[in-house]
Amino acid sequence: MQKLIDALDKNGYYIWDDFMSATQVEQLKSCLPENWKQACIGRNDDVTRIESIRSDKIHWLASNLGEPVQVFLNQMENIRHEVNQHFYLGLFEYEAHFAKYEEGDFYKKHLDCFRGNENRRLTTVFYMNDSWTEEDGGELVVYDLDDNVIAKLPPKSGRLFVFLSEQFPHEVLPTNKQRFSIAGWFRINGVKDNVLDIAR
Q1: Residues 164 and 113: beta-carbon distance below 8 Å
Q2: Residue among 163, 164, 165, 139 nearest 153 (CA)
Q3: Domain with 147 in it: what CATH number?
Q4: pTM score of the predicted model
Q5: DSSP β-bridge partners for residue 137
Q6: Is 59 in contact with 28 (CB distance < 8 Å)?
Q7: Looking at residue 28, what is its pLDDT?
Q8: Could you tell me whether strands 195-197 and 190-192 are parallel, antiparallel, or unpaired per DSSP bridges?
Q9: Burial of 85 per CB tally in 10 Å (0-12, 13-18, 19+)
Q10: What pLDDT does residue 190 have?
C-alpha cells in the first residue's frame, strides 16, 4: 500500500501489477453477470448513449453479486481509508461496474469527472484478462493534461491502475477479443441543485 501512496504523491497514478492473485481473478470472473447494459456517458439527468464515443457494456457492482465481489470491494475500502489518511481527500464512497468489451469495442478519450459536478476524485481500473497479447489490442492509453501520452497499458489479468480522476484523460483502444475489467471511482460528497449526489 505504501508504494501506492508514494506514487500518487509523486506522479498522481500507480500501476499495481498482481493486485489480486490468479485464483482471486477467476473467482471474480465467476461473478460476471449474464445481463449487461449498453454503457452511456454523463450522470443522472445528463446520461446519454453515444456509441461513437464508447461501445462497451456494463453491470454495476453490488455485494450481492457474490463473495468475490465483496472481497474486491473490501480491498477498495482499504485503499479509500489509506488515501484519505495520507491526502485528506475526503473520499466518501466507491462506485464501480464490470465492463465488457467485445471485439471492436472502444472508449474515446475522456476525463472521469463530470463538468460542473467534479466529485469523482480517484479512479481505479482492474483487469481480468488472461494471456493478453499485443495483437489483442484494447490497451488503456493515459494522457496528461497537455495531451502527452504517459502510459499505454495492456489489460493484464490482476493489474490495478489507480489515478487522480481530474488529471489524466484516457481512452480504451479498440479490442480484438473479449475484454473484461472493473472500472471504479472514489467520490466525495457532491451536491447538485440542492440534492446530495450519492452513488448507487
Answers
A1: no
A2: 139
A3: 2.60.120.620
A4: 0.90
A5: 175
A6: no
A7: 97
A8: antiparallel
A9: exposed
A10: 54
CB atoms within 10 A of CB 175: 22
Structural domain contains residue 197: no
pLDDT in the model for residue 189: 78
Find, among 98, 108, 118, the residue nearest to 166 by Cα: 118
**Widest CA span in the chain:** 49
Which residues does the chain have with pLDDT short of 70? 41-50, 114-118, 190-200
Is 3 part of a structural domain of the chain? yes
- Using CB atoms within 10 A of its CB, is residue 142 exposed (0-12), middle (13-18) or buried (19+)? buried
Average pLDDT, the chain: 90
| Domain containing residue 143 | 1-41+48-188
Work out how many domains the chain is built from and give that number: 1
